Fold this sequence. Notes:
This protein has 7 helices and no strands. Helix content is about 70%, strand content about 0%. The model has no long low-confidence stretch (mean pLDDT about 95). The protein has helices spanning about 1-15, 20-35, 40-55, 60-80, 90-105, 110-125, 150-170.
Amino acid sequence: MNKAFIAAFESVRNNAADPIGKTLQLAGMAVAKAAPSTMGTLVATGLMRGGKALEGAQTWDTAGMSAFWDAFLKGVADRGKAQLGDKTLLDVLSPIALSLQAAHASGTALPEALAQAAQAARDGLEATRAMQAQHGKAACFQEKTIGLQDAGATVGVLIIETLHGYAVQSRSSV
């Protein structure tokens, strides 16, 4: 996923002048090319679906971020065929999406909404320790996966924490 994150970063930097939705869709394509693994495909799908949900958006706000993560979650769920509680990326994406939906409904500003979503993601990641892996390489180890956090779920935490950091940095530089 390191290669995927680098490719996504470079794609966003190279396409920053494009509308947000298109920039994210292109980042998803870059991830798919750089990391043609299962996790790379899932993250790429999430980025492309999330970008599609933001077509026409000119700026980031809590409503848009909520729409992005809802589409990201649905894209990963559709592509990966996993369920909540299967010890996967979904166990972090769902709390992120729910947190941002609540933040949007309550009118929470984007930096605070992302801080809350990042905490929800960390809590979801911690919850994966009690689960037994049902998918991917980890599923081969069955009971041995209990007590360990899910690697795919860790990717979700890294993404939301990066977005939160960007929102805070952007806010302080204005």
